[in-house]
Amino acid sequence: MSDASALVLENIVVAFGALKAVDNVSIAVRSGERHAIIGPNGAGKTTLFNAITGVTPPTAGRVVFQGQDITRRSVQGRARMGISRTFQITNLFPSLTVDENMQLAVRGNGDGKFSMFGAAELNAGQAERASAALSISRLDTRGAVIVSELSYGEQRQLEMAMALVAQPKLLLLDEPAAGLSPAERIIVAEIIRSLSHDLTMVLIEHDMELVLNLVERVTCLNNGQMLAEGTPNEIRSNQLVQDVYLGKAR
Length: 250
Ligand SMILES: Nc1ncnc2c1ncn2[C@@H]1O[C@H](COP(=O)(O)OP(=O)(O)O)[C@@H](O)[C@H]1O
Ligand SMILES: [Mg+2]
Prior knowledge:
- The protein has helices spanning about 45-55, 75-80, 100-110, 125-135, 150-165, 180-195, 210, 230-235, 240-250; strands at about 5-15, 20-30, 35-40, 60-65, 70, 85, 170-175, 200-205, 215-220, 225-230.
- Helix 5 packs parallel to helix 6.
- The protein contains nine helices and ten strands.
- By secondary structure, it is of the alpha/beta class.
- About 35% of the residues lie in helices and about 25% in strands.
- It folds into two domains: about 1-80 and about 170-250, 3-Layer(aba) Sandwich (Rossmann fold), CATH 3.40.50; about 90-165, no CATH class.
- Adenosine-5'-diphosphate (ADP) binds next to strand 2 and helix 1.
């Protein structure tokens, strides 16, 4: 393990009964790196994210974040250390405004609770963080809009804003462009590209061409196992990836 690694996954196994959804996966992500996890549906990508965030602790193996073993730490404990994620399925409050969703996100990240009630005004620092995250996510003019009136693409952007508001050190994006139109995908890709390189990022994405232009390294999973790891160019030309991933995905 190198000192420059922000996140090290060592021989991670996540078993659901007899099924090993993640089967002996080891990945080291350098600080500031953008790393993609690709692979066909059911490959174990989201389950691997859940092992990193603590939602589903691994059955075996270790998760090391910034040199600390966090394998058994709580979801909130990991969030406090700077791990933030978005979900494959949108996870917003549709009847609230963009600003209200952001207020919930700011508070949720502050103390590990996610309360709708007893809401005081955000303090100046919180308001500043919320507005910075909305601006990065290109929603700065949409604060007063009810979420259900946003386009689907804008909803995905809001999810990114809600993940960014904690000013995470590690951002996990689970299929941020899933279900988006080509134009919406371009916006999401531009937002991802514009994020600070202080941020370490792991990105799950089904669209190979989108993801390979955004990251420095790629791990391809299949049936829970590591099929290949390398640079985008190496992954593009990898025969196993072409057979297993592209063959199934297209
Ligand atoms: N909570 C769970 N209980 C049982 N099986 C699960 C659970 N979550 C995921 N799986 C199974 O684990 C495998 C990997 O799923 P997932 O990580 O969602 O794949 P991906 O995100 O790559 O599409 C699939 O076979 C899925 O059905
Ligand atoms: Mg998934």
